[in-house]
Amino acid sequence: MKIRPLHDRILVKRIAEADTTKGGIIIPDSAKEKPIEGKVVAVGNGKRRKGGELRPLEVKAGDRILFGKYSGTEVKIEGEEHLILREEEVLAILDK
Predict the structure, then answer these.
(1) Rounded-to-integer distance, Cα 49 and Cα 21, Å
(2) For the ranges 13-17, 25-29, 70-74, which has the lowest average pLDDT?
């Protein structure tokens, strides 16, 4: 299924964190926090300004981003967990 978020929203797939620490300690699922890093799957067309012109988004599909721990709305698409959030909720774009 193809999906395209509307306006200034983006669709993100969280990047899972490691199950063990650097010292080799295994972290149980109950102690893990939600990852705050993700990969942008799809982006909307942009946000309309007051004059009606379209401002394109700075993030694009394929970017790795950081976002707030409680940002966005969780959705399931084809059985996989995704997050829909506004561009303003993105804290940073990670360079490769």
Answers:
(1) 46
(2) 25-29
